[in-house]
Amino acid sequence: xxxxxxKSLYACCLALLIGLSGAWLQPAEARTSFKVxxxxxxxxxxxxxGLGARNAAELxxxxxxxxxxxxxxxxxxxxxxxxxxxxxxxxxxKMAADKNxxxxxxxxxxxxxxxxxxxxxxxxxxxxxxxxxxxDITYAHNYPEVLRIIGTLINQNQxxxxxxxxxxxKRFAVISDTTDYGKSHKEFFTKYISEGxxxxxxxxxxxxxQQDFTVELTKIKSLNPEVVYFAGxxxxxxxxxxxxEKLGVNAQFQGVSGVKSDAFITGLGPELAEGCLSFxxxxxxxxxxxxxxxxxxxxxxxxxxxPDTMAPFAYVAMxxxxxxxxxxxxxxxxxxxxxxxxxxxxxxxxxxxxxDHGQNSExxxxxxxxxxxxWLVWEDSDYASGKRSLxx
Amino acid sequence: xxxxxxxxxxPLGCILPAFLLLAWSGFFLTAEDQTSILLSxxxxxxxLLAAVRLGWVNILREAIAVQExxxxxxxxxxxxxxxxxxxxxxxxxxxxxxxxxxATAVLGLNVQLGYAGVLNFSCASFFGVGGYTAxxxxxxxxxxxxxxxxxGGAVAALTGCVLLLPVLRTSGHYAALVTMAFALLxxxxxxxxxxxxxxxxxxxxxxxxxxxxFSQGILWGDAEFSFYLxxxxxxLLVLCLAYSITRRLERSWIGLALDAVRSDEVASAxxxxxxxxxxxxxxxxxxxxxxxxxxxxxxxLAYISPANFTFADSLLFLSIxxxxxxxxxxxxxxxxxxxxxxxxxxxxIQEYRYLIYSALVLLMIVxxxxxxxxxxxxxxxxxxx
Lengths: 392, 385
Known about the structure:
The complex is a heterodimer. Chain A is 45% helix and 19% strand. Chain A is an alpha/beta fold. In chain B, a hairpin with a 2-residue loop joins strand 4 and strand 5 (223-225). Chain B has a two-stranded antiparallel ribbon. In chain B, helix 2 (12-30) packs parallel to helix 5 (68-85) and helix 10 runs antiparallel to helix 13 (275-301).
């Protein structure tokens, strides 16, 4: 036998050995445990929200696991949807087809959630959508597996338009991104403003990655509106607000839930962000008895990322799934039914009741304003008490 | 010739590597925890290194060169074996399907960039044109759904005609810019067209062929095989078709003409090669293949939106081609597997995986700019390469 052939044989054996040893090195399971999932944007422009929500879901599981009365032990499987529908469907298929995963907390981006609900339904995985607000996610069908803890953007715009009109604003200019998120916001906001007697001076659709708004804002400046309503997510919100200042558009900046992120203020700096408005489903953390406790627990775990806006929703959704498993055992159908039956439960984010489409029907919307580099609940701010005033 | 080389230049030289490849990919695709994934990647790297050092690569290359049909059959058998192995595993079948759809699209890109040297930074757009054609045809008309596949390709090829004039009249950076602009335009166009579902996207009805519903699983005795299996089989067929078309194209005098156009336009024009004709042929054929793949991918995905077909996705297709080695269609297959599966497998490291991925791309460009399996120069004598 020649040298080359012998050497080859050795190499083959070595490669096989290395490959096979992987199978034996898998850690042994300590006790019966079940898996639950999380899918959200962990990379890309919206990762600040997605990472915070993932940590919160992890927190809910950690707290459950150290509870001595708990029957089961849970593990988190977390996947990235990159805020892209095809990657979302891929992740959703992976998660839903895995029979060991009993339920999941999913999606911040509406376009992703719209694409994946069919997958969850097909494979029967109970999910609670924590952050995507497009109405069709729950209302376009009646899948028993799909629930949503956050309100739809219809409620949000009802509240925000009423609030703005009550502040005496009458003339609005609208900039919305052309995603379904921005477009639906624009649709409902203009509807409620017109019904309430306000006037929409102009509407501008911008693509979600547009950097420069000189054209739109110059036009807006000549129309001289009292309010610039921006429907989109915070990275773009930062640019719109900054360029308003640069071009001297002296109007009140009003955002939507996608703008209420700490990254919005860091991106602008406290001076430019001052007085910006935003609206968000659910009661503010500080207002709730368990809010401080949640923040303390979150900080204590030493997560690298701030919780950001959607963390409480993901936390509550995950807790609900874990409790459902504790109650009915590892059966996906029963878990979904049990989740649907939740009515008037007191949670971190306020009361939660699911309607016949699995939509949380306790649509409390909070109003926020930036004051000294922080998002404050409107009622607590200097603006409400009259010490400072919004732009007129 | 030594004894080992003699043994491996026969059929065994194809069958043994194919078997090893099958065993490894089966293990890698099922690997879930970090240690097995890392170990399987390390063992692959070690094995490849050994293969290069010990000259196995050349033995394999020669074995393939003399018995190409056997090697192709081996590759098809590997895919079929993987499908049978994962018959009830939806997720892995879905991944296999994605790989095959992407590979078909990149084969199209290879005809354009690899053979004729026509730059195309909007491959994902043509992929998307195929997808949207399928979506609209299946929901809006009574045409037989299978027709949506060739039509998806045809509409993509037709859409490409819009670009013909600017692509032919520009070269280099400018041609790149033209196609980039098209990719961006395509995205915006979809975003604002309500008819195409707008930014929210549209559902795609499942494929049915002669009453066979592709969205239903296959019942086999007591077991129910995943419905993705049906799509995978069809995708494999399409991929084989695209593969043999590009292979034959490369071997033919057309391929020779395309190579000449790419290498030196002036010189080939002097020899009487009609440059425009071949550029148009390559561009249109490439778009057809991308559209065809896109139509089938959309049906498998069941829901498409503009966010799936952005400029970034075009760059992904391009990076597959660069990684594999421009012009080499075997390289395309390898690179597609790597680009689709590796980021997916590294979900465990979450937000860091794209950092590592980009670092790897950079390393690749610096240290091996020709790609993993660069195309060999044409051999005019002896066995075909």
